[in-house]
Give the backbone structure.
Amino acid sequence: MPERLRTVAPAKVNLTLEVLGPRGDGYHELASVMQTLALADEVEVVLDGDGPGIEVAGPCSTGVPADGSNLAWRAAEALAHRMARGTEGLRIRITKRIPPAGGLGGGASDAAAVLRLLGEAWGASPDDLIAAACEVGSDEAFLLVGGTALVTGRGERVEPLPPLREHGVVLLLPREHLEAKTGRMFAALAPGPYDDGARTAALAARLPCALRSADLYNRFEDVARALVPGLAEEWRQAEEATGEPLRLAGAGPTLFWIGPPETAPAVAARLKAAGFGDRVAETRTAGAPWRP
C-alpha cells in the first residue's frame, strides 16, 4: 500500500507588515509579525503512488491550479531536487478551505505543509526545508513554523515569538479571485517612502499581549484601496456596520477584524446583517504544533 501522510495548512494574517525598501535581488526587505489561524486547508501526500500529480478539491478550490504551477507541487520539486529524489510516484491532494489570492497565505501554506511531510519522510534537514521554501516564495518559511513570529529579510528569516494570546478573528473575504495581486501591490509602492520597522519591533517587544488597534499596521492598505475595485467603499461600509476597525490581510484584498474571542460572533453577525453574507468567516488564532 502507498504511504499516506496528512497534515493541515493554516491560513495566516500579518499583524504588522512593513516594507523597508527594494533589494538588489528583485525582492523587498520586509519586517512583519505574522500569525497563523485555525482556518486551514487539508494536505495529503501519497508516496509511491500510481503516478505523479496534484489534486485540488474543496469549497475554495475554484481558480487554484492542479498542475505543476501549484505552489505545493513546486515545493515538492524544489525539495526533491535538493535531496536528489524523484517525484515519479508522488501525489499531492489538497482540500481548499482558505480562499485563494486573498492575502491569507493559503497556497504558501499548502507548499509549506508538503515540505514538512516530505521532509519527515525523506529525512530533510531544517536548512533543506528553508532553502526549498525560499525557492517557492516569501511566506513559505514562516508557514513551515506557524504560530507567532517575527519575519524579516524577504521572508526567509523567521524568529518565533511568545505566542499571541488567543484572539477571535473575523474575515471579510474577497468578492472574486484576483490575479497577479502581490506584484501589483509592490510595484505601486515605488519609489516609496518606505517603513523603518519600528512598528513591527514595538509589537514583537510587547508579546504576549492583548492586541490593540494601534498595534496593527499594513503598508499595503492605502495601495489596496486605490488598486482593488470597490474595496475602499466596502471597507468603509464594513467598519460602519461593525463599529470596529478592519485591517488588510497581507497584500489583500481580504479584510480582517481581530480581538477578544467573545466579541467575534457579534462582529461577524453585524457584517452579515449589513449584506456581506457568506463572505464572512469566523475563526481564531492558532499556535504552532510543528517545527522544521
Summary: The domain at 3-160 is CATH 3.30.230.10 (Ribosomal Protein S5; domain 2). The chain has a mean pLDDT of 93. The first strand starts at residue 3 and ends at 22.
